[in-house]
Amino acid sequence: MIAASFWSLLAPVIEMSERAGKTAWIPAAIGFLSGGLFLFIVDKLLPHLHLGLPISEAEGIKTSWQRSILLVLAITLHNIP
After folding, report:
1. Quick one: average pLDDT of 50-71?
2. Spatial distance between the Cα atoms of 7 and 1, rounded to a whole number of angstroms
3. N or C, where is the chain less crowded by C-beta within 10 Å?
4. Coil, strand or helix: which one is 48?
5. Which pLDDT does position 81 carry in this prediction?
6. How far apart are CA 69 and CA 55, in angstroms?
7. C-alpha angle with apex 47: 44 to 48, nearest 5 degrees?
8. pLDDT tens, position by position, 3-35
């Protein structure tokens, strides 16, 4: 995921912003850090289940969602970038 993020998102931003001057890395750094912050917040808020654990040990906000809903949520979060 890190390689995909770099080659698909960060490298093109750096390349496009090089024409702006010495601070070409600032837009890429802001995007990278804000994406990391977003994922950190989502990890703390949304319910998620680790492999092999029962649904009663889900992390995040307690919910009665089924495993299938949690799976769809995980797939959606991985496709946001």
Report:
1. 77
2. 10
3. N
4. strand
5. 59
6. 12
7. 95
8. 877 788 778 888 888 777 777 778 778 888 988
